[in-house]
Amino acid sequence: MISMFDNDGNGTINFQEFGALWKYINDWQNTFRFYDRDNSGSIDQNELQTAVQSFGYNLSPKFFKLVRRKFDRDGSQRICFDDFIQACIIIQTLSAAFQRKDVTRCGVIQINYEEFMELVFSTKI
User: Fold this and answer.
1) pLDDT band, very low/low/confident/very high, at 16 (cuts 50, 70, 90)
2) 99: number of CA atoms within 13 Å, CB side?
3) pTM (2 decimals)?
4) Residues 88-97: tens digit of each pLDDT
5) Angle, helix 45-54 to helix 15-35, in steps of 10 degrees
6) CA gyration radius, the chain
7) Phi-psi region of 9 (alpha: psi -120 to 50; beta: other; left: phi over 0)
8) For a Cys staple, 115 with which of 11, 20, 78, 111, CB 3.0–4.6 Å?
9) pLDDT value at position 35?
10) Exposed (0-12), middle (13-18) or buried (19+): which is 79, by Cβ within 10 Å?
11) 83 within 8 A of 71, measured Cβ to Cβ
C-alpha cells in the first residue's frame, strides 16, 4: 500500500503521503465495518459481494466465492479486514487495467496471451 502513496517514487512516504495513506485505511475500515453486518470482525461472501457491488462492480456469486476462498486464511469462510482491503484493491486495480483496454466500454476485450500477461504484470498492485 505504501507504493500506492509514494508519489515521488523514492520507495518511502513522507508525512503528507502518510496522512493520505492513513485516511485511505480509515475509509476502508469504515466501509468494512458498515458491511460487517454481524459485527464479527470479518465478512462473509454475501457481505463481500454487497460491499463490492456497492462500489459499482457487478460480478457473479461464482467470482465472489473464488475471492472468498483466496482470502480466507483460516477456513472460516470469512475474510478479515486486511484481506478485504487487499481483495478490493486487486479488484479495483485489475478492473482499471481492463477498462483501459475496453475502449468501446462493452465489457469485453480481445487480447492474446502475451498481452494478458503484460496487462497483469504492468499493473501496479
Assistant:
1) confident
2) 7
3) 0.81
4) 989 988 999 9
5) 120
6) 16
7) left
8) 111
9) 92
10) buried
11) yes
